[in-house]
Amino acid sequence: MVSDRRVDYLEELEQELDTRGLVARVVRTRSGPAFLRVVNPEAASLAEDVTCAPAPESHDHYYWWSWGERMHRVDDPGGAAVKLAHVLQPLRRELRGETGGTATRDPGAQGLGSHLPGPAPTEWPSGHS
């Protein structure tokens, strides 16, 4: 059954994420496809629901972000786990001078995902409050 194969792929990713310290569980629903709920236990508000489905232009299966963007091939769950660990990593606050600080990601996790926004500003330009 096709859905069983998708669940198998999600379970492989679940195992990879568990080794990286993220909490991941396959969720099976009565009315929709199974998905993988991934949570950072150090910051529970950082969570992602991952699905598995073939790409529209082929029969190859991929992991998909909750917003519908293709994440990674299912034949490399370790690569998908690296991307998820990066996205679910909390931002660090670093002070720069006396005028305030900027939010930054861990410098060791650069270069993964051009879809990620840049550092969040801690001060608004004049005229914004």
Provide an overview of this structure.
With 129 residues, the protein is of the alpha+beta class. The chain has a domain at 2-88. 22% of the residues lie in helices and 30% in strands. It has 2 helices and 7 strands; from the N terminus they run H-E-E-E-E-E-H-E-E. The chain has helices at 2-19, 77-87, and strands at 23-27, 35-40, 43-54, 61-64, 70-73, 92-95, 101-104. Strand 3 and strand 4 form a beta hairpin. The model is unreliable at 101-129 (pLDDT under 50).
Question: Which features does this protein show?
Answer:
globular, 129 residues, disordered C terminus, five-stranded antiparallel sheet, 7 strands
Question: What is the end-to-end distance?
Answer: 55 Å
Strand numbers in spatial order across the main sheet: 1-2-3-4-5
Strand content: 25-35%
Helix and strand string, N-terminal first? HEEEEEHEE
Based on secondary structure, the structural category is: alpha+beta
Region (Disordered): 92-129
State the gist of this model.
This protein is α+β, with helices and mostly antiparallel strands. It has a domain of 87 residues. Helices cover 22% and strands 30% of the residues.
Layout: helices, strands, pairs:
Blueprint: H1 2-19, E1 23-27, E2 35-40, E3 43-54, E4 61-64, E5 70-73, H2 77-87, E6 92-95, E7 101-104
Antiparallel strand pairs: 1-2, 2-3, 3-4, 4-5, 6-7
Helix pairs in contact: 1-2
